[in-house]
Amino acid sequence: MAPGLWSLMQHASGRVGLRLDEVNFVFFQVCSLILAVIFRVVLHPHNVSATTRHLVAASFGLYIGWYSYSWSFLHLLAQAFIPYIMMRTMSPRVMHKFVLTFAIVYMSAVHISQQVKNVNIYLMDHIGPMMVMTEKVTSLAFSLHDGLTKDDNELSPLQKKMATKKMPTILEYCSYIFYFQALVVGPVCFYNNYIDFIEGRHIVPYVIKSKDGKDIVVHKEPPVWKAVLGKLLFSVAMVTIMITLIPRYPLMGNVYNPEVFNGSLLYKLFYLWLSVEIGKSKYFYAWIFADAMNNASGLGFNGYDDKGNPKWDLVTNVDVKGFETATSLKVLIDCWNKQTNIWLRYVCYDRVPFQRMMFTFILSSIWHGFYPGYFWTFIQGAYFTAAGRKVRQNIRPYFQGSRKMQVFYDILTWCGTHMSLAYFILPFTLLQNGLIFDFFWSMYFSLTIVVTVLLLCLPVKKRPTKKVSEDMNVIEDAKASGNGHLVVNGNGNGTWDAKKRQ
Prior knowledge:
two-stranded antiparallel sheet; 2% strand; 502 residues
């Protein structure tokens, strides 16, 4: 690092009232954004070789990691290179299992060590990058396993898309694992998409449909600045909320604020909802800013929509609009931490032969850590989601008679969805059983009781018929393969015209 920069950060930390790790985080995120622009403009795949792009992405990422985490960066090196040795030396028929086991066990050991030492979980330390790296190394191992040992007809649509038939070189691997755009907060970009980006295959000609139904071949590289500027402005708005509102309505106020803790149930529920809504701004900021940084470098292009507009959501980790307007927990969860949801499905849910939800829940819980609050949140999330599914199956049909009734139902379910989220997500912040029980007792376990009554009283509806399931598989397969009515890009991404099947 340049002489004097460390002391400058210490000075800035004292002036703005942020911890040193937070100042370090902001500094390197801004630097990464500037480098991302240079990466797209100067180190464009039309101007330089893929080797040069790999070297720059890996070098700057390694520098950020070493300076930010000091000797703790050795954990990241171990998490990266021991799995690579496994991939190189073991049979591809079994190495994915060994890589997954090692990555999860090693990360769990670090989680437990930090928890035993009572390290502040809000520090910008090496734990976050390790979690992202775990997704990268394990997904790559499974991609190699699928690509090197299975035929296409043995793979699901997602597995076909992610299968890799060539072992990455050490440079390609380091570039993928340590690329600067996503080292600190992610989100994970899966290997094939990343290599397409580095080698310029993401900007090959694309076909779109005109209004009169004709095919139009688009050769120009899609513009990105509108998407980047929009995401940066949104990030600024989230920072403003973090600075002005989070101190006034902190999440811990649900248990530590006497006015709230001793208030009426209605006031407690209102404060809970408000504090969680405001508290989400931290995640929105981190993920949307990271998305802007990826896009500024050219990473994240996901083809065109049916109007010919470029989509920059390939590595987007949160669908803010979908999340905030969700009227069911299923939709809400699908819009949150999207890349991790894909990872969980790819390495776990689609692989285990039985109890898929249980094993996926276990993997997700371990990936986050071992504080009791994490398990409270995930267990209750599954519990509340099951209740929401029953409500939709049994009660929704009574509200479909008119547009007004449909809107009324949507308003009710929106309120129920976001209130439920606030209720079961707070333990994720409280962490310890003592505080969690204090919170639930202060709420009289109200929503837990309501959900239990719904689960016990509402009947279970039959699942869709086999024919419907098969039809959906055909549609999903067409989406993945790109053989749809509308458009596909070089990665097989496109928009499927479901009307064509009807």
